[in-house]
Amino acid sequence: MDLNRIIAERTGIAVGQVAATVRLLDDKATIPFIARYRKEKTGSLDEVQITRISDLNNSLRELSERKQTILRTIEGQGKLTQPLRSRINDTWDATELEDLYLPYKPHRKTRADVAREKGLEPLSQDLIKQQNGRLNATEEDLQGARDIIAETIAQDERSRQAIRREFAYTAYLTTKPVSGKADSPEAQNYRDYFSLHEPLQRIPSHRLLAIRRAEKEGYIRVDISPDTDKCLDKLGRLHLKASNERSYQVELAMEDGYKRLLKPAIETEYSLSSKQKADEQAIRVFADNLRQLLLDAPLGQKRVLALDPGFRTGCKMVVLNEQGDLLCHDVIHLRMQDSADRLSRYIDRYAIEAISIGNGTASRECEAFVRQCLDMTKQQPAVFVVSENGASVYSAGEIARREFPDQDVTVRGAVSIGRRLMDPLAELVKIDPKSIGVGQYQHDVDQVLLRQALQQTVESVVNYVGVDVNTASPYLLTYISGLGPVLADNIVRYRSEHGAFRSRQELLRVPKMGSKTFEQAAGFLRVTDSANPLDNSAVHPERYALVEQMARDKGCSVQELMHNAELRRQIDLNRYVTQEVGMPPLMDILHELENPTRDPREPREVFHFDEHVHTIDDLRIGMVLPGIVTNIASFGVFVDVGVHKGGLVHISQLADRRVQNPSEVVRLHQEVQVRVTDIDLARQRIQLSMKLEH
User: Fold this and answer.
1) 397 assigned to some structural domain
2) Looking at the structure, do residues 79 and 141 belong to the same domain, yes or no?
3) Which of 241, 261, 290 is the last residue before a domain boundary?
4) Are residues 584 and 40 in contact, defined by beta-carbon separation less than 8 angstroms?
């Protein structure tokens, strides 16, 4: 069967669109490039749809290879019949394929194998017929025959499908604590999961991941079981044909096969599949949060003073120029007049335009100290508090050592805090996404799938925003469509040796930058000071001639066309539709001419916590406070109200209506108003609500 047709059936996307997308992917086109610059070929599919096609295409091709391996194996055993070959060739369901293969799959010697070696296969076949008549066999031989029948029933495709259906509809997950470990202090984190008995299908993904973590750490045991009587009844309808001595032996074998072989096998399947579903949802939440974080508002190129707060060792302070280069660093101690004087002098001496403060320990005290110091300065920079999640990981990592080989980790961490204010995207791409603190159970999910999803998310965001080729770091350039680490380093090296790029076309002089790579990357790279204004836009070089034709038709230059809204309104896009260029890309081009250099991210705004609240002890039930959303999970969102402990707004408390997904209501780093509903000082937990009326 045509794989494109299967993909179309599973996605609801037209076969022609699928086929065109697969051809582009096979031609090494990237997903961001296809989504942005090949709409006329794909029918304007977006990145999510293209990614779905890519994933399905890869999995189906892997399944096709698996089928060929299975066919060769069975044929090598001399057992490949034409009906079996047809069944294997026709199926595109991985579970069905493995069921067909199971009776022929090489395995360790079983009880049934031992019985066959004793010559008990004919007896087992006689029993399976369940005919009336005298049964002459020893108990030892009957046991061996039952072992063969038990394995046959457990490997039977119909049996497995019937039990899977029972698991799907009636399976319960049951937990119990491991004796001797449940009373340990560490186990108390999991005490909510010590005695559960719930339908598997109703357990939320975050709870299932927590249960699996508790099981992995040895605090609980987990069992997944359907209704045993219903399962045996289903098997009986398939395999019991009469009510006599032989059918009684088959029934004994059937019960043994279910409990010893079939139930454990299907339980393993459902354990894995339920974990996979939970992983996929957690990864989806993580990727959504990461996307929002990377798209956080940039302040832009400003002179920034950054502070990494601390009480005992002081606050590490750095000054950065407009490009984020380190100018100087110092240590400031809170509540010391000498430190206040020095901080004030730094602000004025370097004409500081913004101050960035990490949100860790002593953050609120540091912010108050800074605002007092501003009373002593001529400059009046805006003060921002930024997330410092992952800053310590960056400061101790290879990238930071390469950027600042002569500075210690405290200076590097403060630099990261400052640069996050200027451009969060450019700085956060240097940090392993798992260390940024916007996921749930990120260490418990499938690490390969997580890494792949986060990589795709970063690539998507970087290409959506675009980068200035003359200022971007190699770490940012790495994620540009078609580039990768080698070409990113080559671009930076070329830039340092030859000066700033003067046009997009000059990129072709970079070593290893071929025409195909240039095609993939050029539209996402900006050259701000190029003589051609289109080089600082998302218009692809392959469409420059088209834009120039539009300008000639209006009797103006491209520059004038980009700056004159009236001229653009007069353009009849229908005149420029061809077989190669359809209406969707033409509309993109016109939109880009209207906003050629606009950053799609929102501008940064100043936020203030409640000045009367600094620690959890200052909170009172009923207080309404301003806060910042710091993390979004499937069960709710965490909000920072300025007390160094994030409070939880459960999904039921997000809005007056029922909410399925917290992202429907809030986004990461959104400013919100919350009401304090509960304070647990012992466990340092805060419950909040966004339902302000109560």
Assistant:
1) yes
2) no
3) 290
4) yes
129 and 274 both lie in a single domain: yes
Range of the domain at 92: 3-104
Give the tens place of pLDDT for each residue, 443-498.
788 888 888 888 899 999 999 999 999 999 999 999 999 999 999 999 999 999 99
The domain tally of the chain equals: 5
Closest among 23, 41, 100, 39 to 69, alpha carbons compared = 100
N- to C-terminal Cα distance for the chain?
59
**Residues 6 or more apart in contact with residue 401 via CB below 8 angstroms:** none
- Tell whether 298 is covered by a domain: no
Kindly state the average pLDDT of the residues 240-260.
Answer: 95
Q: Say whether both 679 and 641 belong to one domain.
A: yes
Tokens of 691: 């339902």
State the burial class of residue 627 (Cβ atoms within 10 Å of its Cβ: 0-12, 13-18, 19+).
Answer: buried
Q: Is 338 in contact with 365 (CB distance < 8 Å)? A: no
Cβ atoms < 10 Å from Cβ of 199 = 11
| Lookup: tokens for 40 | 């006329």
In a shared domain, residues 144 and 239: yes
Q: Report the C-alpha gap between 360 and 316 in whole angstroms.
A: 13
Are 579 and 673 found together in one domain? no
389-442 pLDDT, tens digit each: 888 888 988 999 999 999 999 999 999 999 999 999 999 888 888 777 776 677
- What is the Cα 309 distance to its own chain's centre? 31
The closest alpha carbon to 177, from 169, 165, 187, 166, belongs to 187
Please tell me the predicted confidence (pLDDT) of residue 1.
Answer: 59
Rounded CA-CA distance 313/360 in Å is: 14
- Which amino acid type is present at position 307? L
Mean pLDDT across 639-657: 86
Q: Which residues pair with 657 in a beta bridge?
A: none
Rounded to whole angstroms, the Cα distance separating 146 from 245 reads 13
Q: Are 575 and 625 contained in the same domain? A: no
Phi, psi of 116 (to 5 degrees): -65, -40
Residues 165 and 91 in one domain: no
The CATH code of the domain that includes 520 is 1.10.150.310
Q: Does any domain span residue 428?
A: no
How far apart CA 625 and CA 613 sit, in angstroms, is 9
> Strands of 220-225's sheet, edge to edge?
197-199, 172-177, 220-225
Whether residues 58 and 73 share a domain: the answer is yes
Q: What percent of the chain has pLDDT over 90?
A: 60
Sign of CA dihedral 55, 57, 62, 67: positive
User: Distances in Å between the alpha carbon of 404 and those of 325, 395, 415, 431?
Assistant: 10, 9, 10, 15
Type of residue found at 655 = A
Tokens in use for 107? 């395995």
Contact 374, 345 (CB under 8 A): no
Start-end of H helices in 478-594: 485-498, 515-521, 544-553, 558-563, 565-569, 583-594
Residue range 334-354, pLDDT digits in tens: 878 888 899 999 999 999 999
- Least Cα distance to 365 among 609, 180, 166, 138 occurs for 609
